[in-house]
Amino acid sequence: MRVLGIDPGLNISGYSILERNSGDIEVIEAGILKTNDKHSLEKRLAELGAELGSVIQQFSPDVMAIEELYSHYDHPKTAIIMGHARGVILYKAAETGIEVVPYASTRIKKALTGNGRASKEQMQKAIQSCLNLNAVPEPPDVADAMAVAYCHLQAVVRDFTTSIKSKRVAV
């Protein structure tokens, strides 16, 4: 299974392609999608869509795992801008027929660190450890994208294992 993990943002969106092969999780690619902050909102959204389209075309993921929208009441404009970026990302998934699975940031953090309120640094170190990386993923947006993809791969394994146990009980 090949998962495209996305940490959505307008300035920078982190992305990663993780793949599970016979139990092992391999990092295929990870990076950022960056828009030009001097361009208008609509042009930046088009840039984001085009860059994501290239990633999807190049790596042909089976599923997209994306961090859910989260905002502080103190920053409603940030949430709206993030919503625009997330909308373009979801549109690209729909356009290319990729299933989308959203995850709350607290669930992702808890899955990797055991703490739903883990810091960016804790998440970077946790994903480095989980994926046996030589260095901490930079910038944090990349680590977050890797974390959401990793969380999805772990959830799929748990769901499969639970399904097998349920079938054994039902017999």
Nutshell version of this structure?
The chain is an alpha/beta fold and 171 residues long. It has helices at 41-59, 76-96, 105-113, 120-130, 140-170, and strands at residues 2-7, 12-21, 24-34, 63-67, 99-103. Helices cover 53% and strands 22% of the residues.
Write the layout of secondary structure elements.
Blueprint (H helix, E strand, L loop, with lengths): L1 E6 L4 E10 L2 E11 L6 H19 L3 E5 L8 H21 L2 E5 L1 H9 L6 H11 L9 H31 L1
Task: List its traits.
alpha/beta, disordered C terminus, 171 residues, 5-stranded mixed beta sheet, single chain, Nucleotidyltransferase, domain 5, 5 helices
Describe what this molecule looks like in 3D.
The protein has 171 residues and is of the alpha/beta class. The protein has a single domain, classed as Ribonuclease H-like superfamily/Ribonuclease H (Nucleotidyltransferase, domain 5), CATH 3.30.420.10. The protein has five helices and five strands. The chain has helices at residues 41-59, 76-96, 105-113, 120-130, 140-170; strands spanning 2-7, 12-21, 24-34, 63-67, 99-103. A five-stranded mixed sheet has the order 3-2-1-4-5. The protein is globular and about 45 Å long.
CATH fold-level name: Nucleotidyltransferase, domain 5
Which secondary-structure class do the elements indicate?
alpha/beta
Q: Strand content of the residues, in percent? A: 15-25%
Low-confidence stretches: 159-171
* Helix count, DSSP H or I runs of 4 or more residues: 5
Beginning-to-end CA distance, first to last residue = 29 Å
- Average pLDDT taken over every residue: 89
Which superfamily, in CATH terms, is the homologous superfamily? Ribonuclease H-like superfamily/Ribonuclease H
The second-level CATH architecture is 2-Layer Sandwich
Widest β-sheet, arrangement of strands: 3-2-1-4-5
**What kind of sheet is the major sheet?**
5 strands, mixed
The amount of helix comes to 40-55%
